[in-house]
Amino acid sequence: MNIYRFNLKNDVVEAITSFAKVHQYDSNKDYKHYWSIWCEENSDIVRDEIERLYNIGYRGDALDKMYKAGRYYFRKKNLSCVVEPKKRREYISMSATMINAMDEHISRAVLGDDFTPANGYDMFCESNVDLLALEICSLTKDTIDKKSVISKIKKTYKNRYFIYNKQWSE
Predict the structure, then answer these.
(1) How many CA atoms lie within 13 A of 3 on its CB side?
(2) If I label 22, which of 34, 48, 97, 105 is the partner at 20 to 30 A Cα–Cα?
(3) Is the pLDDT at 128 greater than 80, yes or no?
(4) CA separation (Å) from 106 to 64, 95, 134, 153, 168?
């Protein structure tokens, strides 16, 4: 088994990162000076890591690898940024009847010269009052307020127009 990337152990990474953060804004000369002092003070960690890297097949300069990791990577690492994934909202689907009605309306209405998605939505609402009332009732049962339902229907109509337009432009 060939190893192509020789990573440092986690405790070594933490030690080098804390050193690099302290000396983040030092000049190259000062950084090298403090690095040599740090290596002497942490000679056990450094020696063990050099030996470990050699044993797993690393043949480069392990001390130089640690220096460059601290100087050019770990000092720029943002330690305070632990991002938790956002909780996704529950998807609310519309009925197939409503989507089919929207698709039929778009395919008929798009042939007109003055058709825009906004005008088309208004025409759709005027011609499908009963269907819209049923859809609003069924969606408000799922504890969604009426304003959000109306916004959802409008977005769905415009999305169906986008899908229709994309199919015919290809």
Answers:
(1) 10
(2) 48
(3) yes
(4) 65, 17, 20, 14, 12
| pLDDT tens profile 85-115 | 888 877 888 899 999 999 999 998 888 777 8
pLDDT tens, position by position, 141-152: 866 788 888 899
- Pair of tokens at residue 102: 């929207």
The domain limits of the chain are: 10-76, 96-164
Burial 66-88 (b: 16+ CB within 10 A, else e): bbebbbeebbeeeeeeeeeeeee
CA dist 145 to 93, 95, 116, 137, 141, Å? Answer: 15, 17, 27, 10, 9
For the chain, the straight-line distance linking the first and the last C-alpha, in angstroms and rounded, comes to: 48
pTM for the predicted model, two decimal places = 0.50
Amino acid at 159: N
Q: 5: buried, middle or exposed (CB in 10 Å: 19+, 13-18, 0-12)?
A: exposed
pLDDT at residue 77 tops 80: no
Which pLDDT score is estimated for 167?
84
| CA 36 from centre of chain | 39
